[in-house]
Amino acid sequence: MNFFRLVLLFLVGLGALFVDFWTKAFIYYGHLSLPYPIFHNWLGIDFQLSLTYNRGAAWGLFSSFQTPLLILRLVVIVALILYLVFAKKSRGYAFPLVLIIAGAIGNVVDYFLYGFVIDFLSFNFWGYPFPIFNLADTFITVGVAWLLLAAIFTKKNDVKCL
Predict the structure, then answer these.
(1) Which residues constitute the domain of residue 52?
(2) Which of 46, 110, 119, 158 is catalytic?
(3) 0.85 exceeded by the pTM?
(4) CA 39: distance to chain centroid?
(5) Residue 137 appears among annotated catalytic residues
């Protein structure tokens, strides 16, 4: 991977981390009276900002296993970084990998700073509440979806995302 491309990807990752950290700090340190409604009943969807502490993985799963989860997250982050930097096949998947890495780092840093992950984006779809999440979770989800779509719709020797 050439130097310019690596720097660009690094800056994208730093930008994602900055936005994630800033939004979590804004919510955590009480700059709004929560819950704070963003919109109500727009096509049957409600959206509000609401502070939740997540001590587990997605949707609070495995919250009794914080240390093993932390170790697993750190191993995955290191493995993804190594794959991104050293694997020739990673070129086409670089941007979604950076999104996943940035999201994972954002949630791990939360664990070290607060002892839990700060979640605050709350949706209710047609009367059914969706689990509360944060921007780091969004980066991870978008990155994984992008990788899946790239794997499905890309020819074997034609991987070009960024």
Answers:
(1) 3-153
(2) 119
(3) yes
(4) 23
(5) yes
In DSSP terms, 138 is beta-bridged to none
Residue 160 in domain: no
Give the helix ranges, DSSP H, for the chain.
Answer: 3-28, 66-86, 94-114, 135-153
Beta-bridge mates of residue 118: 53
Cβ-Cβ contacts under 8 Å for 115 (sequence gap 6 or more): 55
Inside any domain, residue 39: yes
The catalytic residue among 20, 46, 110, 137 is 137
Structurally, the chain folds into a number of domains equal to 1
Q: In tens digits, what is the pLDDT along the chain, a chain of 162 residues? A: 678 888 999 999 999 999 999 999 999 998 888 899 999 999 999 999 999 999 988 777 777 788 888 999 999 999 999 998 888 776 678 999 999 999 999 999 999 999 999 999 999 999 999 999 999 999 999 999 999 998 888 766 555 555
Contact 97, 80 (CB under 8 A): yes
Q: Give the span between the Cα atoms of 105 and 12, in whole angstroms.
A: 13
